[in-house]
Amino acid sequence: MRSFPYVIACTLALLCACGEDEAAWPRAEEGLEAEAPGFIEEKGEDGAEVSCPRDEDEGAAQVAAHARKRGRRRGTPPVDLGTWAKRTAAKTSPLCHRGYCQCVALFHDYATRFLRKSFVSAKYAYQLYENAPAAQWAQLDAFATPQAGDVIVWKAYSGCGYGTGVAGHVGVVTRVQANGQLNVLHQNLSGDKSPRLTTETQDRNVAPSCLVGYLRPK
Q1: Which residues pair with 154 in a beta bridge?
Q2: C-alpha distance from residue 96 to each of 101, 108, 134 (Å)
Q3: What number does CATH give the domain 24-217?
């Protein structure tokens, strides 16, 4: 008969072996939310279960396609791009990453938690455009037609409503309206660090002269 400590040790080993690999998930102590985004369970081409976010327009369909390729955690409620944006905008405190609670932290939350892409190192927001890996992000110029899921990158000292300082600015397009206006999720606007949704026209704050360009998830 096995000893009691032996049984306990084997049980703990079995539980560890069955657990999910959490290494790729950002930790709460790094400043990101610990709650995992939700996704829809589907069957991949190889028959394995994967999951993907839900949305209806072309941009969000690309976000969903990325989710199918990479796979997602299981057992969480469905969340689409619009729902993620509304939930984020409803927060009364800012998203933070490594002690910084500005617009770049919002990008990291979108890229690493929602899209499950790799971390992009950048001191300033405008540097995200050049530093984003080409294997994961398409770099579109400032004259591109944006779609839902794109990341807008503003120049430093843009002279527009955003990106007025040395860091530039970054935001996420959550919806393109029929009239061409953009719903954009920001953080750290006008001294208010909490996330906020705005509606933009492409002849003002998101005019090509204001931007470095757009990052589109692959």
Answers
A1: 169, 211
A2: 4, 9, 25
A3: 3.90.1720.10
